Amino acid sequence: MPAIVLVGAQWGDEGKGKATDLLGNTGEVIDYVVKFNGGNNAGHTVVIGCEKYALHLLPSGILTPGVTPVIGNGVVVDIGVLFEEIEALEARGMDTSRLVVSASAHVIPPYNRTLDKVAERFLGSRKIGTTGRGIGPTYADKMNRVGIRIQDLYDEKILEQKVTGALEQKNQLLVKVYNRRAVEIREVLDELLGYADRLKPMVADTSLLLNKALDDGKTVLMEAGQATLLDVDHGTYPFVTSSNAISAGACTGTGIPPTRIDRVMAVVKAYTTRVGEGPFPTELLDADGEWLQSQGAEFGVTTGRPRRCGWYDAVIARYAARVNGVSDFVLTKLDVLTGREKIPVCVAYDVHGVRHEEMPMTQTDFHHAVPVYEEFDGWTEDISTCRTFDDLPKQAQSYVRAVESLSGAPISAIGVGPERSQIVQL
Q: Of 44, 56, 106, 234, which is the active-site residue?
């Protein structure tokens, strides 16, 4: 049965949580929702009726009755944050008992949170824009083969060996480079082991679980944290996250092979936003940017930081369609553009007098890219109650079709408001 991958097509915050929820509530029966990369450095906002839920580490499927939410092996887990999020949902009457966590997922130890924050401050003007939650250092430990996995919590001898080995190096950095106190081995062990008993009922071989589910005719949705332009290999490096947020990352982050993937959905906002540092060709540093930020409530779910805003970038969308193998786009926040007389769309870049219709090869060229715009007529009608494409004003229909033709894959659904019911399906 279907294995579906859901990714973000820009720099994140496109509305992947709503798209995940949409699949489970519009006739598509989703049995498992799996987060396959990242950690608590990103967030999904899902609105159910008058209730708004901000999710960070948990898969957004946690809010859908009957769905089994899974944290895959490609995720790095701050266990304290995980339990805080679980407790917050349970306090609001949500059932979290179905949650499953991969035994092979890596744990964010306390010393990596410290290192992340002090290293970013140390960089000064060269900072990356990290959230300071220990994500990058934990992925670095994973690649350096000194990481701690969930399963290590159940073998205290191995856990102590790993923590001791890691701190031999990290304490040198903390004390001699960053002028911080050394971290005690015992305090790390006590923190991590303190979670072991409570976590144990959730822990499983999730690759086996998910492949058996597919064998049994179940549908598995794999959702990315962050987005295409933040992918460590294919994003705007070095201003990226520390994992693979494109569709290929779903395979390594879950243990589901690529031959089992049936569909790749990409969520793209009707304009563009970015949080953190790095180049952003269509960024608006004027009243239009402030208007988009205000109308779209563009503030980070996890950090609260204001998002940088700009017009829709079709070059980025085409790039996302290519590297992800996108089968269809979900276009969100079309309603935010209501009231504009004209709506610009970036169709290409000008780099030192040369037109680029695809992503420039080098970071230098991308940094100097100047957007080439085409303008489309706006609309003033309230579209929040539209439920079919024909319900949309003609100008909104034209905008959607123009964006679709420029972006490299068909649009299958359009978000016209924050609630799960505010969707137009094509």
A: 44
